[in-house]
Q: What sequence folds into this?
């Protein structure tokens, strides 16, 4: 577990240094790195781990509960942001998006692999692909279009993008159709080693892109706590795991990896959605910083005490 903390801190520090040292290249390069991970690293991880997955009743119930949890967290974030705090629409949208989007791939995969071993990874991948990407492509994009200052894509374009520009969905469909012989043990083992790459590249991008936002005046260092940020912390780190546990109480056999993924901090995709639709970037950026810091401090404390 210690090596994960070291890798995260080192990657973020490298991203910050890179953005200061090469301001014209680091941010652009990190975004390209994220695209390379999305198209060339995550798909084989998804494919080779899902070929052998056997979805149990508990697993299916857990995935359904995960989708319901994301919807409820979004509604809770909306209630806090709009009727309760009466935030401006771009800020409210950023709160909702930052609450429902979790870092389940770049942080979740390596954490599951380290905590629970390779056998737990297939269930985690399936949960991530179904719950997280439905949440992103339908939930976050819909919120962005509804609350952002930019028009955003129409429903047809987003639906087309979901089906035809989603490499993880393609990898999932192929994996569910392919026979087990298409995923020999050596390929599965290699794919599980690949989970280390998104961790390093993802958190390098976090350091570089957030430093870029600081340079552009979007975010201040250190970011000061404020009400929208408190709403994200409550929804993302408290409500999400609590609701998943509540919704899965009637069922047995729910994979433990689902609960770990439910408590992941805000994902970098919240910034991407914020840029695309004109949501409040300060809220999105600071949500990533605060939720990730709180999560890592908790992880460090658990590592020391266990």
A:
């Amino acid at each position: 577990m210690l090596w994960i903390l070291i890798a995260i801190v080192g990657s973020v520090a490298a991203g910050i240094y890179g953005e200061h040292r090469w301001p014209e290249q680091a941010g652009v390069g990190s975004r390209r790195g994220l695209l390379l991970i999305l198209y060339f690293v995550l798909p084989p991880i998804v494919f080779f781990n899902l070929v052998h997955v056997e979805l149990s009743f508990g697993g299916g119930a857990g995935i359904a509960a995960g989708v319901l949890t994301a919807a409820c967290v979004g509604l809770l974030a909306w209630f806090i942001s709009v009727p309760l705090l009466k935030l401006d629409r771009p800020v409210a949208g950023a709160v909702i998006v930052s609450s429902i989007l979790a870092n389940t791939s770049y942080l979740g995969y390596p954490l599951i692999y380290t905590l629970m071993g390779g056998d737990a990874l297939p269930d985690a991948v399936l949960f991530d692909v179904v719950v997280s990407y439905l949440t992103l492509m339908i939930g976050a994009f819909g919120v962005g279009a509804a609350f952002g200052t930019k028009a955003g894509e129409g429903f047809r374009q987003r639906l087309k993008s979901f089906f035809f520009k989603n490499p993880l969905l393609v990898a999932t469909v192929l994996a569910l159709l392919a026979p087990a012989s298409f995923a020999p043990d050596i390929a599965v083992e290699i794919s599980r080693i690949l989970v280390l790459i998104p961790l390093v590249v993802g958190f390098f991008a976090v350091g570089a892109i957030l430093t870029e936002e600081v340079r552009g005046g979007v975010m201040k260092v250190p970011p000061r706590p404020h009400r929208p940020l408190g709403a994200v912390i409550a929804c993302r780190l408290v409500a999400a795991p609590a609701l998943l546990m509540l919704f899965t109480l009637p069922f047995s056999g729910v994979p433990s990896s689902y609960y770990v993924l439910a408590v992941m901090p805000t994902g970098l995709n919240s910034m991407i959605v914020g840029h695309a639709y004109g949501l409040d970037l300060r809220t999105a950026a600071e949500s990533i910083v605060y939720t990730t810091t709180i999560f890592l401090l908790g992880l460090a404390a658990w590592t020391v005490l266990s």
